[in-house]
Amino acid sequence: MPEDVSLATVAARAGVSVSTVSRIVNGEMRRASPATVARVLDAIEAVGYRPNPVGRALKSGQSQLVAMIAANLDNPAMATIASSTEAALREAGYVMVLCDTHDRPELQDEYLYAMRAQMVRGYVLVAAVASPALSELSASGAPMVFVTRRNPSGNGPFVGIDDSAAGAAVADHFADLGRRAPAVVFPRLGSSASRDRVSGFLARLRERGWSDDAIIRADGEGRSHLQIGYDAGARIFGGRDRPDAILCVSDQIAYGVNRRALERGLKIPGDCELVSIDGTPLNQWVAPWLKSIEIPYAIYGAEIVAGLQLIWRGEAFGERLLPYKFG
Amino acid sequence: MPEDVSLATVAARAGVSVSTVSRIVNGEMRRASPATVARVLDAIEAVGYRPNPVGRALKSGQSQLVAMIAANLDNPAMATIASSTEAALREAGYVMVLCDTHDRPELQDEYLYAMRAQMVRGYVLVAAVASPALSELSASGAPMVFVTRRNPSGNGPFVGIDDSAAGAAVADHFADLGRRAPAVVFPRLGSSASRDRVSGFLARLRERGWSDDAIIRADGEGRSHLQIGYDAGARIFGGRDRPDAILCVSDQIAYGVNRRALERGLKIPGDCELVSIDGTPLNQWVAPWLKSIEIPYAIYGAEIVAGLQLIWRGEAFGERLLPYKFG
DNA sequence: GACAGTTTGGCAAACGTTTGCCAAGATCGT
DNA sequence: ACGATCTTGGCAAACGTTTGCCAAACTGTC
């Protein structure tokens, strides 16, 4: 209903100037007598005034918008991160702008420029990829938080898990279970997360007596983790050395590997134990055969926003490693 | 790099006035001599000018923002709609703001007001729920497109499938297969989509000779379709009349029903044929046992944006029913 | 009763645009 | 050579805010 109500509308109704209303709206109550304040507050109520974020942004040089630049929304894990971040931002009075880069650096750059033009308050980069605009922006000191993958150019605030430790935990699990032929499946173009998971896994296996070439490694090309798992599965199950335990660095890779296993008539987890890192809740429903390191994506949003707020206040925010569960 | 470049920067460098630059930026080439145009274009290039969307929005009363108000991002189908819409909007030069209402009317209202304050160009409502602000906004003639669920208050532009026909197609499938005891599982608080799917299914079964009480109906409470399916599954499989074919009005409901079936030791699709309406690509990987009406969510974005553009041009846009595939 | 200090509130500029209007200068027809 | 018309471009207002600064009008003090 309130169509065109601005400070001027309120000011006219309360019989004061625009500046007085503005100050009251912004909580500077000392700048007016109690009587005036009351009159203005009444007027605000009466006409249903709400501050115009655009005018505010123009004047102050920053909007209430926060950009989330994500690599791929079709990935349930990222969708959950997006959803929880959106909720946390709203809670804090901000509005989330969502950009899906499909993992392409040019698109990421286009978005970064567009978002700066929008005077966004901050950037949340989920699984960011290296790109010119990113290093530029990161160097300029813009408020940003990296999620899942660390800043590909330099470092910066990070929210995620201890990927290396997660990989090691899976190695321990395989070893404790008495498995003899462990394997790991990962994307060829690894992010920092993938790499850390794999190297943590390998390092722990070495510590527990495996020789390096006794560990089967299979990577897959492309951006689709489903396809990566499926392709790698072909090589793993087709080779001479059949693994009896496989670490998949993401849920989707595990889905792909499992499909291949099914096609080959293998029993999961009977013939081969499958463990993934992600552990989205959907697994319980559609992939009960899958054991996972569960990453608490649903609380990422709160951590991300807490981090942003620290940065806005000028305080330090290095990294926040969240606890995972091996369920 | 270009930090604070505005029309004024360009104007100063080209030795013309701000207005001239503005007009040229907006393509009004006839308002200046070719020489001037060239000079201005050079200056724009040199300083790396990009129009400030905030200033523009303030002046023109509308931003380049389009609000997507979705019920639940954790649902892969909606995530895909969000992703494809985002891509189509970017293509057309707009920026998507994402709001997740978790199906709650108050939150939806909060968002609608916030988005109007942002002077968004249009609204995309995915699975909208009835709420005061929605009827208000819808009555005010704001540009909006309803997706998946029709406008709960009145009608408006719609993008979706012919839900009733989809339900009927499943009924035909069951009949043709010779199934004798069909069932349907749906959420108690049905959206227009759910209702149409169910009624299309029932109507066709009646046409093909079933009496109304021979058809098993099971609904479930709550917002989680997974849980709805799981709960309904308990009743369906626990009852005396075991169905031999079940229509689940969404993928997630089917996941829930299937889990229950597994727990009861039933073979899907051997003992009972399961068909869902949604058919997200993930099914091929994690639910090969599920037959689906496949809704082309990946092309929703393009249709939605095309619809918005029609509306912006003042042309009519009633509804767009997209073809589904029964795969 | 004069002076300083404090309240209270308004004026006006600024943020980056867009656009109606006006004014020179150029072009043309007669 | 003179008015009519067109071209080219600038001035200034406006969109809704915020905020530095100034000016009344109080309050209190000696």
Automatic annotation (TrEMBL), chains A, B:
Domain HTH cro/C1-type: 6-50
One of the record's GO molecular function terms: DNA-binding transcription factor activity
Pfam families for the chain: LacI, Peripla_BP_3
SMART domains found in the cross-reference section: HTH_LACI
InterPro entries (UniProt xref): Cro/C1-type_HTH, HTH_LacI, LacI/GalR-like_sensor, Lambda_DNA-bd_dom_sf, Peripla_BP_I
Keywords, comma-separated and alphabetical: DNA-binding, Transcription, Transcription regulation
CDD domains the UniProt entry points to: HTH_LacI, PBP1_LacI_sugar_binding-like
Record bears the keyword Acetylation: no
Residues of the HTH lacI-type domain: 5-60
Protein name, as recorded: LacI family transcriptional regulator
Species, as recorded: Bradyrhizobium manausense
